[in-house]
Amino acid sequence: MRYNFDEIIPRKNTGCVKHDALEKFFGRDDLLPMWVADMDFRTPDFVMRALRERCQHEVLGYATASESYWQTMQSWLTKHYKIDSRREELHFIPGIVAGIAFVIQAMTQPGDAILVTTPVYPPFLNLPQSVHRPIVSSPLKVVDGRFTIDFEDLEECAKQCSLMILSNPHNPGGTVWGAETLSRIADICYRHNVSVIADEIHADMTLPGHEHVSFSTVSSCAKEISITFMAPSKTFNIAGLGSSVCYCPNEVLRKRFYGFLDGLEVANGNIFAFVGAEAAFCEGEEWLQQLLQYLQGNVEYLRSYLAEHLPQVRAVLPEASYLAWLDFGALNIPHDELRQRFLERGKVALNDGTTFGGNDYRGCFRINLGCPRATLAEALGRIAMSLE
After folding, report:
1. Backbone angles phi, psi at 356, to 5 degrees
2. Of 310, 311, 348, 354, which sees the most CB atoms within 10 A?
């Protein structure tokens, strides 16, 4: 079956954040939304079919994950990421942001510092600070159009911290961390007694020519200190179902974290989270391969557009997923003016780079490429017009 990723699907007034929260976050609702990290593609037919079939049984009571759900999760992790998990090492999570918040509460105390590499997905910064855990940031460098880690700085930062939140692949920019990079991170964190949350929500969306390496698999040190989160939500555009899974092979960490979840009963799951995820991982291979090819086409379209129309804009283009990082600094336009131009002239909504790590990222914005190519073309045209 050939899937149509060029289809334009109206989403406004469906209760989606991307469209219906524009007024709240940007002060106007007439914008082309290129911000929230979900895709504008139709959720796969096999997922929708499974949800509809479950609805035919018209009792929606308390839910529990079936044995086939867990077997499906384990098979996917083994096949794609060489994670040979035991059932007791896995736990359902109602979303990865929630999972990270739970780890912070379960594994740290107020005042404990948490390590991140910036620029980074804003909840990595906001969640710890909201519960009085200071952030220690190790800035990434851009080398040959991709993010790289300053390991000397990372080691100095790790000495101050008890927990690291690792984005693997990285968000924003979609940089795929290789095995050597992950091994060095694991070695540093192990020596300084820093546990690692590995957010691997974009792992399934590693683009052609690249390979995702799961943090827990790179060394015995990594396996000992890691709590890994994965999900079908970004991959199959089912974020609204709140379905994620956690893998924790270290028994001490596992008992502490899973005991926290079970004690508070905050991660029991729901009918549609289980049904949707199982259908996605059972039947989604062909759909996913077609999606990745389409997203790679969008990345190449962005690359070509910038080269032709906006050569001064520096970009970190995705090696995984669909979130590109654009640096407009060479244009010498103040950040606040850039933001206003995009909103008022171009009427396009981008993620403000300063929310990914503060004023170091003035002049930077994140753009979502998970959309039909016509939408991307329209957005880039509006951005270029804003800068004239």
Report:
1. -100, 10
2. 348
Q: Is the torsion defined by CA of 353, 387, 39, 5 positive or negative?
A: negative
d(C-alpha 386, C-alpha 371), whole Å: 21
- Partners of 196 in beta bridges: 164, 226
Q: Are 34 and 377 in contact (CB under 8 A)?
A: no
Report CA Rg, the chain: 21
Largest CA distance in the chain: 60
- Flag whether the pTM goes above 0.85: yes
Instruction: Give the rounded distance of the alpha carbon of 47 from its chain centre.
Output: 21
- 222-229: average pLDDT: 98
For tokens 């997922």, what's the residue? 47
- In sequence order, the β-bridge partners of residue 198 are 166, 228
At 1 the pLDDT is: 87
Q: What is residue 343's DSSP assignment? A: I
What is the number of residues in the chain? 388
Q: Which residues contact 278 (CB under 8 A, 6 or more apart)?
A: 50, 66, 68, 69, 72
Are the C-beta atoms of 249 and 223 separated by less than 8 Å? Answer: yes
Tell me 12's DSSP state. T
86, two tokens: 């035991």
Q: pLDDT averaged over the chain?
A: 97
Taking the alpha carbons at both ends of the chain, their separation in whole angstroms is 43
pLDDT, average across residues 27-45: 97
Structure tokens at 233: 């939500």
Residue 62 zone, left/alpha/beta (φ > 0; ψ -120 to 50; rest): beta
Sheet hosting strand 195-199, strand order edge to edge? 90-93, 244-247, 226-230, 195-199, 161-167, 113-118, 135-139
* Two structure tokens written together for 377: 């073309």
Question: What confidence tens digit (pLDDT) does each residue in 172-181 have?
Answer: 999 999 999 9
